[in-house]
Amino acid sequence: MITRFSQRQRFSAIALLCFGLLGTGLVLQTLKHVAPCPMCIMQRYAFVVVGLFALIAALHNPRGRGGQLYAGLIGLAAATGFGIAARQSWLQWFPPKYVECGPDLEFMMNSFPLGQALPMIFQGSGDCAKVDWTFLGLSIANWAGLWFAAIFVMALTVLLQRRERSRFAN
């Protein structure tokens, strides 16, 4: 069903989805006072990367391998975001025994080299295990994971569609 849409339409949908989700996050942060934890911020970065790649792909509208390259980059960024969301969901479902609120993302990035800051981010702090908001019983991290998975599948359809066409062209 999704393959009925053109490559440009799929890339446009991914970009709109990502920017809409980022907007929703900002609304929750501003109006509902739901402060993002370090892992939430990393998920936002992943949505920005996915959204920018998708926007560039939609504007460029490449043919052949160019579309596959964009789809691969989008899929990789979505898989990264999914991994972060899955780790945070795990922390929320199985919170650590001793909850301690670690330093925020800005402090970690300014105080430590990237190689040391990233493991600290993925360990999660007490803030990352806390569920501040839910919709239909799912936390923000759960929803982010579902959206990253959906984006990955959409990118995969671009990759598979291109391969099928080239196989039938021979």
UniProtKB/TrEMBL annotation:
Residue ranges, Periplasmic side: 28-45
Transmembrane segments: 45-62, 69-86, 140-160
Family annotation (Gene3D superfamilies): DsbB-like (1.20.1550.10)
Residue spans, topological domain Cytoplasmic: 1-10, 63-68, 162-170
Pfam families: DsbB
Main location: membrane
Keywords in alphabetical order: Cell inner membrane, Cell membrane, Chaperone, Disulfide bond, Electron transport, Membrane, Oxidoreductase, Redox-active center, Transmembrane, Transmembrane helix, Transport
Entries under InterPro entries matching the protein: DiS_bond_form_DsbB/BdbC, Disulphide_bond_form_DsbB, DsbB, DsbB-like_sf
Disulfide bonding pattern of the chain: C37-C40
Record HAMAP family: DsbB
Protein name from the UniProt record: Disulfide bond formation protein B
Natural source organism: Niveibacterium microcysteis
Gene: dsbB
